[in-house]
Amino acid sequence: MSSPARNFDPEPGSVRSGSAALGKNVTVKGQIFAREDLTIDGEVEGTVECHEHRLTIGPNARVQAGLKAREIIIQGSIQGNVDATDKIDIKKEAKLVGDIKTSRIVIEDGAYFKGSIDISKPTAAKPAPQPAPAVSQQPLSQPAVATPAPVAAGSVK
Amino acid sequence: MRFGVANEAPAKSSLKDIPPSLTRHSSGFDQFCGFLRASEGLSILDMSGASQANITFITGLGHRISSDDIVGTMQQCFGADFMDNQQAASNAQRFIEQTLTFPDQSFDGALVWDALQFLVSPVLEETVAQLLRVMRPGGLMLLFFNADEKANRTPVYNYRIQDQKTLLQTPRSGYQRSQHFNNRMLERLFERAASVKFFLTRDHLREMIVRR
Hints:
heterodimer; A: mainly beta; 10 strands; 0% helix; B: alpha/beta; Rossmann fold; 7 helices; globular
């Protein structure tokens, strides 16, 4: 007797949760590009980029890399520069040696940090360009400069 | 001129031996803030380790802040007794290699706080030399020194900025032996600087601003 067919396709309309993770026993040497939230709890050497997403460096992580993301949460050890367009959150057990560039930073007492912090405020949205005022068009036959009125002879002293 | 340590048995700090937190008015920091407010885009070094309060205050004024936890480095290199253990050449070398590892003339201002009072010769002079090296000409440094010559132990504090005139001292790791400096000793320690200014205080801290 055959078993009924089972459908392993995702249900229509469902969305897979966008979150990836590297466990504490994982070691990566090279470049990591993520288009979803990423949690790293292992060893990474190289660069990590998660543009427009959240990057979490777990408590067991040992990272020797430059990091770029929208938001970065740090609980482990990092040696490298950190660039977050939105926010960096450094927890008390974190150790960070490197320079930081971000719009906002939260650092808990007890966190170890050595490096510089550059706060870059998000640029204000430029106002929509206003339409230029209408300028009346003069016919080509009419001169742009008014001609002086004629002066009568003998009137100027 | 060498700065030495009085012959005293090292005091052992216990977990219960925690100094109290203090809020104090600081004329020296008030003057340092005048320097901060007069310019934009300065590069400031905070040697008390990274803290939300200090980062928010300095960056709120439009400046860049760097952090170097010099007391934390002392703890790593000298262990429980700063004074005794820095006499060992290997410990002293390790401390110098890990402290102020910035390029020349990196900073317009430095908040040194009271860290230097826990150092003795030759580590003290070498640290001051590194400090002057990383400062830009005309830059200001704010320093505190214990002014109570009878005290044989000094609490180890973190310094957190409350506002332009107020600092919060939070206990860090109990007490350590420290040097006592008079004004003349401090002037000679910073004889390579452009100027030194002292501030009178009501408590046992001597505040000074050094201009590179």
